[in-house]
Amino acid sequence: xxxxxxxxxxxALAKVYKLQQPVLNIVxxxxxxxxxxxxxNAFIKTISDIEKVKERAASNLSExxxxxxxxxxxxANDPEIKDQILYMINxxxxxxxxxxxxxxxxxxxxxESMDDAYFKERAADVKDVMFRLQCNLVGVEIPDLTAINExxxxxxxxxxPSDTAQLNKKYTLGFATQIGGRxxxxxxxxxxLEIPAVVGVKDILNxxxxxxxxILDAIEGNVYLNPSEDLKSEFIKKAxxxxxxxxxxxxxxxxxxxxxxxxxVELAGNIGTPKDVTGVIDNGxxxxxxxxxxxxxxxxEDDFPxxxxxxxxxxxxxxxxxxxxxxxxxLDIGGxxxxxxxxxxxxxxxxxxxxxxxxxxxxxxIFKTQLRALIRASAYGQLCIMFPMIATLNEFRSAKKLFDxxxxxxxxxxxxxxxxxxxxxxxxxxxxxxxADRFAKEVDFFSIGTNDLVQYSMAADRMSEKVSYxxxxxxxxxLRLIKMAIDGAHKEGKWCGMCGEMAGDIIAAPVLLxxxxxxxxxxxxxxxxxxxxxxSLKKSDMEKLAxxxxxxxxxxxxxxxxxxxxx
Length: 567
Ligand code: PEP
Ligand code: MG
What we know:
Strand 5, helix 7 (about 185-195) and strand 6 form a beta-alpha-beta unit. The strands form 2 sheets. An 8-stranded mixed beta sheet has the order 1-8-7-3-4-5-6-2. Strands 9-10-11-12-13-14-15-16 form an 8-stranded parallel β-barrel, surrounded by 4 helices. It folds into 3 domains: about 1-20 and about 145-230, Phosphohistidine domain (Glucose Oxidase, domain 1, 3-Layer(bba) Sandwich), CATH 3.50.30; about 35-140, Orthogonal Bundle (Enzyme I, Chain A, domain 2), CATH 1.10.274; about 260-565, Phosphoenolpyruvate-binding domains (TIM Barrel), CATH 3.20.20.60. The protein is built from 23 helices and 16 strands. It is α/β, with parallel strands linked by helices. Bound molecules: phosphoenolpyruvate (PEP) and magnesium ion (MG). Phosphoenolpyruvate binds near residues 290, 451 and 499.
């Protein structure tokens, strides 16, 4: 068995299709008379090849994914690259193949050395286009994945953007790559194509042979080559179960998140970038319950993102969610989240230090820019803004005052804004949970951040493996704090959500439902499973369960209670 990272869930059993890119042995020779013509023809063929690939991929990919080929076409049509090659042919009197390889190498290193992450990533695209061009010059065919006409699992070092785009889902049951991680290009593509994939499988190229039989377990991240008949049968069964479960969940995509006794809750998705919205929509999310805007700041290379860049990102999410609720959290930076262009002060306990709303209330210039961008974006959907790491009412009041001031200014400037922007807080510091009844008089909503609420309640660093046993969201102490937040909100007619990992935990969900949680926000792929669970429960039964759980001694007892109740 070979081990890798499960990048796109599923199980596949099929023959190995070993994808090996041709190795080009390019040698430097003296330029002949027709080098320029050769080059011209190779460019023409490259452009037409990319157009064909794009055409074939059109049925598999979204508009956004297809845009990759427009970028490739732009590169292939870029006169600068061609001019550089021609210049070398004419000045250095070398053959077109050698000149192309040199220009290709220098262009790729130029992209790879760029500071901007976006351009750095484009190096893979440059490589892709230039390799095609070189193959066309040499007259070597690039393996045509669209020619595959039997069920296979592709094994490759990595898949280029155009490889993934050519995959025909009918025959490509999955792929395993030797390099790459969960966020590599091929992993992202696999998830959007919903093809099982295991990436970063060391040694797979040496071990797997074309035509071998393979089991790709992209749930656990394992690859079995030439398995026994018993193992095959075991995985055929597992694959069927997985498929059936996934299919069964899909029917819930447009269903309500409603209990058997008619109580409806909202199941929303957590996102880090506007692109993640697709996952929330595909998994039937009722909204976005947490947009962690710090990624916008962390991805920015040399300064805080300006108002316009932020406005466009927030607008994109609101528009994509088409009127559904979108909760955007203001900057939660500091702690373990650093910025390359800003030096945070050295502190003994950064998690307890200058971070999140504490930073924003100190650097109101940065905070106001974000608030303006948010308020402007509110015209495009149903926006809720929440402040992270609120400990005291005065912190909330100060943040809210800045919000009100910026809103008034924008109105005076004649800017169109949404009718009702809700302003709430994250309940992730025990002090805020304990005083929830007072907070609830002034905020529009709460969202409980259990990742930090557990950390601060247990005084256990969430980054430390040694004390990870104290991550106990089901501990009755935590459940009591959660109850305080929910009851506090409800007493004032406000709603209470949860956006920490606990919200997507299938054992916690029944208790949270019983405690009266209104909104559960989780990673998109957990939504349908949770919906299934909610639809199988009675709120009244879960109220009794929660009551009992609150009176137990330990997290283990609560877990057992839930398991026994649901049996
Ligand atoms: C939390 O603390 O529960 C939370 C959702 O925020 P983060 O994980 O970003 O701190
Ligand atoms: Mg937090």
